[in-house]
Amino acid sequence: MDPYFQGKRVIVTGAGKGIGRLLCIKLAKSGAKVIAISRTTEDLDNLKLEDSSIEIHTQDISEWSSTRKLIEDIGLVDMLVNNAAVDRKKPYLEIKEEDFDYIYNTNVKAAFNISQAVVKCMVEKQTGGAIVNVSSIAGINAVHSIGTYGCTKAALDMMTKTMALEFGPHQIRVNSVNPTVVMTKMGKAAWSAPGVADTILKRIPNGRFAEEIDVVDAIVFLLSDKASMINGIHMPVDGGHLLQFF
Ligand code: NAP
Questions:
Q1: What's this model's pTM, rounded to 2 decimal places?
Q2: Is the CB of 103 under 6 A from ligand 1?
Q3: pLDDT tens digit string along 166-197?
């Protein structure tokens, strides 16, 4: 239990697997009232079995209207974590319009839609709040064959900055975390081919990939009152991966 999180209402998107799932469990253990949104009901049922205090909603957040209605029905929350994201690893010339829309609709448009509904409520009620956008180091440096995903993360980082600027006066803080590779479902799909992981590992001074808990701890810190003067940043969680050219 953490007195700061006691009773705080927190929405986490992409809560069914990986980083989002662990984040929900950690926040619930800290005393928060977690509202978990994800696409696969089975994952959410499994999360509920792990911690029955967690409220679960099956929702494909790339669907604008039904997602907006869900967030409006949930009403006022103290915190939001835009964590859900998708990728289709393909070289630039092979990306089709359908791939582009698929990646942007979840990674950017849904985060915008959900944030707008959440912030409107916070501003109306003058409660303040904290938002963390789960971005990536791929939004900062170019990574071959995940360029479209990288563009969405750069867009998300700019959304972080503009939201921080516009909503700081309402005591709403907005920050990004930018992890390196984490071997979740998404991480394995992109980076587990023979030889690929080793090449990346050589570029990480700490000599390992991030674990889910490394990212979760950074998110929890940015949501907490310990980060009360931190607003509009992109925090790499990358063991120094971004530091070197050679
Ligand atoms: P993950 O294991 O693939 O989990 C993502 C979760 O988001 C899944 O539960 C997925 O549901 C859900 N989701 C995806 N699209 C959704 C949608 N449209 N509506 C509702 N739920 C949706 O991914 P992860 O590795 O934990 O990634 C979490 C965040 O970290 C993402 O923002 C990702 O970009 C970022 N990140 C990951 C890495 C990495 O190497 N893993 C590195 C840097 C940043 P379904 O499985 O049911 O589709």
A1: 0.98
A2: no
A3: 999 999 999 999 999 999 999 999 998 888 99
Atom 3 of ligand 1 has which residue's CA nearest to it? 186
CA distances from 99 to 21, 67, 121 (A): 25, 21, 33
Q: Is the pLDDT of residue 31 over 80?
A: yes
Domain for residue 186, yes or no? Answer: no
In a domain, 242, yes or no: no
* pLDDT tens figures, 114-173: 999 999 999 999 999 999 999 999 999 999 999 999 999 999 999 999 999 999 999 999
CA 23 to chain centre: 10
> Which residue range forms the structural domain that includes residue 130?
9-181+211-236
Taking CA atoms only, the protein residue closest to ligand 1 atom 48 is 39
What is the number of other CB atoms lying within 10 angstroms of the CB of residue 66?
11
Query: Separation of 133 CA from ligand 1 center, angstroms?
Result: 12
CATH number at residue 14: 3.40.50.720
Contacts of 195 (CB under 8 A, 6+ apart): none
Q: Is residue 230 part of a domain?
A: yes
| Contact indicator for 190, 146 with CB cutoff of 8 Å | yes
Ligand 1 centroid–CA 84 distance in Å is 5
